Amino acid sequence: MGDEIVGIDDGTGEQVRRAAAGDEAALCALLDAHRDRLKRMVRLRLSRRLAGRVDDSDVLQEAFAEVARRLPEYAREPRLPPSLWLRHLTALKLAEVHRRHLGTQLRDADREVTLHRGGLPPADGATLAAQLLGTLSTPSQAAIKAETRLLVQEALNAMDMVDREVLALKHFEQLSTAEVAKVLGLSKAGAGSRYIRAIRRLRAILEQIPGFDAF
Q1: What residues make up the domain containing 74?
Q2: What tens digit of pLDDT does each residue of 38-70 get?
Q3: Which residues are CB-contacts of 137 (< 8 A; sequence separation ≥ 6)?
Q4: Residue 190 contacts residue 177 (beta carbons within 8 Å)
Q5: Is 0.85 topped by the overall pTM?
Q6: DSSP H helical segments within 103-210, as ranges?
Q7: DSSP state, 118?
């Protein structure tokens, strides 16, 4: 197992090995390749109560320091593809940040986490609604946004938590169906069917909003 980086056939495994051996350029390239995706995840899940105190760059800086420290261990025995391992460590760091600043009772940061079991701050309805309605930008659309935010938020909160997480992971974090399944401990078929169900429910609401292009 230690000789092969899980789920990699594009040369990233070699990049991981070089980075783990102390190649700074390889480490920077690895982190840069995943920075935008990890930043989306942090923005989606960072508590609004921390606005002005902590931002996504702060969390990523801490997470990347942890990545550099633990990369040799990961390269010896990789259990996740690099993309999901990086996301996992970033998730743990985000949980630590919440606990540090808010006193949130989260799981031990050294344990494996799955989102629907409470290891990582979930994507709540308010945050997802803000992301969705953030695409409305004209004055008339802004009024629509103010009037419909609660409707969308309530619809999202009414979803099964796993369905909502599947929606957050696939649509907002842009993970593949296979990655969503691995993160949540679902089968690939199960993750796909839950995403389709969540999208259909949400689209039915969004299509009632004038000027909103439902996804």
Answers
A1: 12-117
A2: 998 998 888 888 888 899 999 999 999 999 999
A3: none
A4: no
A5: no
A6: 125-133, 139-158, 161-167, 177-184, 188-206
A7: T
